[in-house]
Description:
The complex is a heterodimer of chains A (about 800) and B (about 160). Chain A has 4 domains: about 20-140 and about 200-255 and about 260-290, Aldehyde Oxidoreductase, domain 3 (Alpha-Beta Complex); about 145-195 and about 295-405, Aldehyde Oxidoreductase, domain 4 (2-Layer Sandwich), CATH 3.30.365.10; about 420-470 and about 640-788, Aldehyde Oxidoreductase, domain 4 (2-Layer Sandwich), CATH 3.30.365; about 485-630, Aldehyde Oxidoreductase, domain 4, CATH 3.30.365. In chain A, about 30% of the residues lie in helices and about 20% in strands. In chain A, the strands form 7 sheets. A 7-stranded mixed β-sheet of chain A has the order 3-5-1-12-9-10-11, with helices on both faces. In chain A, helix 9 packs parallel to helix 18 (about 745-765), helix 14 runs parallel beside helix 15 and helix 15 (about 550-580) crosses helix 16. The mean pLDDT of chain A is about 95. Chain B has about 160 residues and is an alpha+beta fold. Chain B has 2 domains: about 1-75, Beta-grasp domain (Ubiquitin-like (UB roll)); about 85-150, Orthogonal Bundle (DNA polymerase, domain 1), CATH 1.10.150. Chain B is about 30% helix and about 15% strand. Chain B has helices at about 25-30, 85-95, 105-115, 125-130, 140-150; strands at about 1-10, 10-15, 50, 55-60, 70-75. Classes of the chains: A alpha+beta (about 800), B alpha+beta (about 160).
Amino acid sequence: MPKDNGIGASPKRREDVRFLTGRGKYTDDIQLANTSYACFARSDVANGVIKSIDTSAAEAMPGVLAVFTGEDFVEVGGNPAGWAISSRDGTPMHEPKRPVLAHGKVRHVGDAYAAVVAETPEQARDAAEAIEIDIEEQPAVIDMAAALSGSTFVHDEIGTNQCFDWGWIEDNREATDEAIKNAPHVTTLELINNRVVPNAMEPRASIGDYDPGTDEYKLYTTSQNPHLTRLLISAFVLGIPENKLTVVAPDVGGGFGSKIYHYGEEALVLAAAKKLARPVKWTASRSEAFLTDAHGRDHVTKIELACDKEGNFIAFRTETLANVGAYLSNFSTATPTFLHGTLMAGTYTVPNVYVNVKTVFTNTAPVDAYRGAGRPEATYSIERVIDKCADELGIDKIEIRRKNFIQPDQYPYTTPVGLSYDIGNYDALMDTLERRLDVAGFEARRAESAANGKLRGIGINSYIEACGIAPSNLVGQLGSRVGLYDAATVRVNATGNISVMVGAHSHGQGHETVFPQVVAEMLGIDEASIDIVHGDSSKIPFGMGTYGSRSLAVCGSAVVRATEKIINKGKKIAAHMLEASDADIELVDGQFTVAGTDKSVGFGDVALKAYIPHEFPLEDIEPGLEETAFYDPANFTYPSGAYGCEVEVDPETGKVDILKFVACDDFGNVVNPMIVEGQVQGGLGQGIGQAMLEVGTYDADGQLTNGSYMDYAMPRADDMPQMVVDHSNGTACTHNPLGVKGCGEAGAIGSPPTVVNAVVNALRSAGHDVTHIDMPLTPSRVWAAMNG
Amino acid sequence: MTNVSMTVNGKAVSGEIEGRTLLVTFLREGLGLTGTHVGCDTSQCGACVVHVNGEAVKACTMFAADAEGAEVTTLEGMANPDGSLGTIQAAFQEHHGLQCGFCTPGMVMSAASLLKENPKPSEAEIRDYLEGNLCRCTGYHNIVKAIMAASGQDVSSMAAE
């Protein structure tokens, strides 16, 4: 019988009740007394020198309280990149300042150069339109290859558009070159990993508040990690002492990476709140979101796979141009490097791997981590070139993968690109996929489709990702400027109910439901008596937030460690109450019991005793029952999976229908199956969206040509297939206490190559000599592939 | 500024508005009913769907002044009289049809409108009807499943496992 409490149960999500009754509290829902409103003036050209800005007309307009330009922020710091990368020749990356408001130059359409604060949003908007700016326009730097050879620069002071030229691992370079030169077979594929716009349904919003009486600031903002935002504002941008700044991320309507980062609007509303001594609110329009949220992906890659004639892999070698946009967003330098290059061995025993990534500044919105962050790019390159190789050698797509899989007896397995996989079983995942997709029955279904005039294809994929980011010791060696631990405080109140303060932030992941399941399991009490607190830097000890599928693996481990401390202290208190030795006390089903006896005391009685410590042995035990733990993982976690889908292509129109999608994942142990399934389905939605529909497109002048839902093809309900999600092949992570790996990004990582592999397979089945189609697979692209 | 009066979730309300004030702005800022959301500026995302005189309407596409005298229902008005979740709301919770919750008001209001028009919609009819409601979290699978379940249909074939 399924459990209804604790680990492995799927209780209804407790956060749903407020969301379903309109009582959620998102940033824009918060209305402080005496609020004023900010509106930003944004560049409509991609690249240009600011000759002058005239704010006099705006300042004279009704309701206007203040106007800010870049000049007002010259003295404050820039918004930094969180990861320092060196080029192959040892030189540090170029790191131009990213100001609160553009100063001297505008560098992408949407770059904010001024801000108006007024009594109403409408007055602020009207006044922002009255700001006059004189810009000497320069040619836009858009195409990455042209950017590297051209003489127009996004940042003139650097004198190049290359941020860095990174090799991973440089010591592998010669051996990989040699292996490819001597290999019996080499498959080469050039591909584009298309730029996508994150499109969390809640646009970004921020409210700055300042109390002149205490010199304290408060920022309400749409963030995945309020403590990191506080740290960036305090240590780098505005210099507000951390103890004077509270950052609150209340209910947040999705993030997918785009709300990890600190943005200039957050600094502006804080600075304006201080100047005006009243709250300042800003809420992005969807148009602003398209232009200014950090975008994702945007790689151009050439990959080579060397193997013998039987398909045994010898080497992977890639050359990638990765777009970082106009400024370095906080994780923009880590995403195309250590979240991408380190995964370029995939699930395979390939002895030689070398990765080269050149990052390129362009006059486009900054590009940073988007669901999957580097790992989708790695998986796409590997899994597409394997399919092409299999076609060239006439080997079955599943067979060629199985032939090269790392085997269960090889763990821990150190790859040529620097990771040590702790556990997995890729053949078991592939077995399940073959069964659930009914691979054996595919040819019969293909014949049925053919009878209906349709081309049916099957796509197979094997992915691995590095999650639970990350071991601070390791990432510190690799250039990270932050630690990537997490923290939790478990506070047992006198009456026995519990508040758990967690550094992870829930913006759809269901933490309010899942973390109590973990604590309830450990304490043997009803999870209904446990609540979590998150998203408020003044209430929780610290936290690095939620991204990289890290919440349960890292913060959940901190929760476990803090709960263990609670149990240990509870045993001491119980031992005192039961006049026994604490070594003899066991906690079973919520009862502290003297082992082997019927003497016991309930968890609630121990909690009460902790706060009413009459006759307490104060020399041995402090009053109170509250414990904090920081947890820094020993390694990444390595979720993996085998994905498959079947598609039908209409040869007349090029339209693709995904008929069935099966995702078989190894997430290790699963705490809440319902939520895990939902996370995978959501990731599949975004991955299928990237594969089939989405691409953020800039024209040669640097205009985003599809910056609204009228033009950008978001996946809708009728674009999505039914999804089968299977996580029955979990191999427990070996190094965290819950044995969990993380499930948030898998769907977005595993699905794009699955879909493209299936469509290429369908076309080839009809004799079309198609080896690749770049995403998104719109009917026109598929039709063109068939019709030359 | 002019005055507008309407009935919202069964309660008579009125307020001062500008001519350009949208219905969604009046609901959120004038009445503090923040359960209705704004997710775009082109009437595409559907997070702002409410019912006006029984019809599903994108509240960002209608001036508040045009709702003079109308009966408006928002997400806040969808619970049972005792405060418990209504059938559709309960089905969304039961089948994990929401994650971040931002698109949810529009999804629930559109679903209610669909089931009024078509009490037993097929899966394809549901997907088609949700053309005007975007969700970025769920991949839609569990939203469709929740609406099927709310209409009393068997959803065992849509089990992920």
